[in-house]
Each structure stands twice: as C-alpha cells, then as structure tokens.
Amino acid sequence: MDMPTHAIRDKGRTERPDDRRAPGADGQHRGSASKRLRETREAQSSDDFCRVEDDQEIDVVNFNVAGGSKTHKGNFKDETSDHLADNIIESGAEVSTLQEVKVDDEMGDFNQEILTDLAERQLPDGYTLDRAHPTYYDAEGNPTDDAENAARITYTASYGDDAKSPARDGKPDDCAGGTRRGGKPTHDLIFEIEKETVDAPLESIRPGDHGRANATVYTSTLDGKPGYSVVFGSSNRHGTYGNAVVLAPGCELARDAQGNPAVRQQLLGQDPDDGERRTAIGVSFTTPDGNQAHAVSTHMTNQKDDDITRLVAIDEQYISLRKFSESFGENLIVGGDFNSTPGEQDFPTAGELGLNTAGFDGIDHILSDGNIDHADKKGKGGSDHELTVAEVTI
C-alpha cells in the first residue's frame, strides 16, 4: 500500500508582500507593551533569520477542537475529529496546530482519536479498522488492561464487509498481503500507536517562573509504515488539557544526540482571575526534502469586557510568545487560538511579532516568517472555532 505522500514543493523565491501583514492598532492601554515589542524586534539582527536557498510550500491546518468547551467538547469523537481528519487528508497538510486538546477519563484521549481517524482514511479499499477492540501494552511490551497508561496500542484492520480476517497464507506483499481466490487480500493490517513521555518543562521569560507539565509524543504506523504523529503538551498540571502539533508522514520529529525529541514548551502567562496557564508548545522537524522547520501551537488569554488586568496579561503573553518563537530561528509556523483579532487593540501587528499572517478575521490564526497564500476557513465541524488552512512558503 502506498501511503499518502506530502511532498514539499520547491519554488523560486518571491518577495513577501507587505499586504500580508496584519493591520496595526493604536489602542491606548497597550502602548508600553507595544513599545517593548518594537524595541525587541529592532534589537534582533536580521542575520539571525538566514533562510534555505529554495522556497518550500507547506500546507498547514489550525484548529481549536473545543476540548475546554462545556457545550462542544462532547462533539469531538463523532464530529470534530472527523472534520479535522477530513481536512488534513484533503489539504495534504504536513503540519497541523491544535488547541484545547483533552486527555482524561471523561473524554478519552483526543490525540489517539485523531490518529485513528487519520488511519481509517488511509486504509486500502475494502478494509475496516476494528476500533472497538484495541490491544494495550505496557512499556515492557506486556499486554495490559490499563488503557490510560499503555505505552502502545494496536488495532486490526480486516478485509471484507464483516471486518473479519481471512486466512493467512504467509506470503504478504507490499501492503495488503497475498491473495486468495477472488483476488482478496489474505492478511490483516496492523495499526499501531506508541506513546513516549517527554521531559519538556515549561519555560518562561521571567526568572524563576516556570513549571512542570506533561508532554507526550504519539507515533503511529500502518502495516509497519510510518503514519501521522502527534506531539501533545499539557497546559495544566494534571496532563489533561493543552496544545498539540500533528506531523504528516515524511515529516520526522527532530531528536538530539541522545534520542530525545526536539520538543519545548513555554509558559506565556496566566489568566488573572482563575490562574489558567496559557502555554505554547514548539517542535522541530525535518521536512521530506531534508530541511529543518519548526511549528508552534498556542492558546492565549481571552478578553472580558475590557478588563484591564486581562489586557495587560495578553500583552505580556505576546511578548513571551515573540521571544519563544524567535528562539527557533528560521522556517517557523505558528498556529493558535489568540482570543483576539488582527487590528484590535490587544493584537500586536504582525510586524511587531516578526511574522506574517494569513489575514483571517476572528481569533484563530496561522502565522509564519514566510509567505502565506491560499488561506481559507473550512467550518467548525462541531467545535466552537473555525478550522483554518493555509499554504505557507518558507
């Protein structure tokens, strides 16, 4: 079986049009914060953002999947995850940035659900994935009933309307196995998800202001071939709610010399009233062409009736996000629920953030240090946020 390819297309360099930058705003309350942002930008040497020789196009999806919404989170399994998987496959997205991702007893593991939905859409015709009977394994490879803490989950995909496996003949070919009479495949396909815990403390621009949070890498294979992967970073202390980055097959998560995944998290700040932590997760990865790129997913504080404490918190979070984003260097994609709109007084211009924007109305955005073209909204699909797609040239 040929897995879907997500080739990154080379093009000749073009200048970035100025009209891709978000309109500015001169809100009185954020003058000092905006000034600090501008001063930070001016101090940054342009030499820090050297680029690869050829431009590359990467398709990007951004989506708040509403795991924190009391009225919408129940739609995730039956509607929202399907909407996300359909758009990832249809757009050929190499990178997807997600917010409000849940991992708990009540809602299950959103990351596992997303990967399973994507796998179903990659199966050859005639195969059905048995989602009702996964097998769980612990870190030592032993079967376990502890689904929540399992290190590996496997599912079987069988050929035929009844989803039962035909007899094996021991002669598998590239994907669907040998054939029996009638030309039908003779072996099941195995879909597998492995979970890897990552030591990724929450960083902060404030000295001594940091925290611990879970980060998990979910790596999938279908019939032994690399599938999609998800990197999930928890915003809360329980590891149950946060942001995620989805990478398509062919986009390989970078690792250091010791084999540790290149995953970092940033504590942007907290909501003034309830202390909810606002965070960003960033990953470095290698494109199918062998170049390094970076993706950040973030979720920031929302406004409440011009509450000045929240507006100050939002300003500080933008400063923190700017510093975090710049630390990755070139070829950067940032997607998120910013809880604010370009042109509003609490959203700094793209120039102040040092990034280009897709120019969407609303609060969900895709940003990059490269050009952004062919941006579109694809509906809510059971969430209370619009799924957005864009073609980013880095």
Describe this structure in words.
This protein has helices spanning 31-43, 76-91, 110-120, 308-326, 350-353, and strands spanning 9-11, 55-64, 95-104, 108-109, 127-129, 135-137, 152-159, 189-198, 202-203, 215-222, 225-234, 241-247, 252-253, 263-270, 277-286, 292-299, 332-337, 356-357, 364-368, 371-377, 388-393. The protein is α+β, with helices and mostly antiparallel strands and 394 residues long. It has a single domain (21-45, 55-120, 193-393), classed as 4-Layer Sandwich (Deoxyribonuclease I, Chain A), CATH 3.60.10.10. Helix 2 links the parallel strand 2 (55-64) and strand 3.
Short description:
The chain is an alpha+beta fold. It has helices spanning 31-43, 76-91, 110-120, 308-326, 350-353; strands spanning 9-11, 55-64, 95-104, 108-109, 127-129, 135-137, 152-159, 189-198, 202-203, 215-222, 225-234, 241-247, 252-253, 263-270, 277-286, 292-299, 332-337, 356-357, 364-368, 371-377, 388-393. Helices cover 16% and strands 33% of the residues.
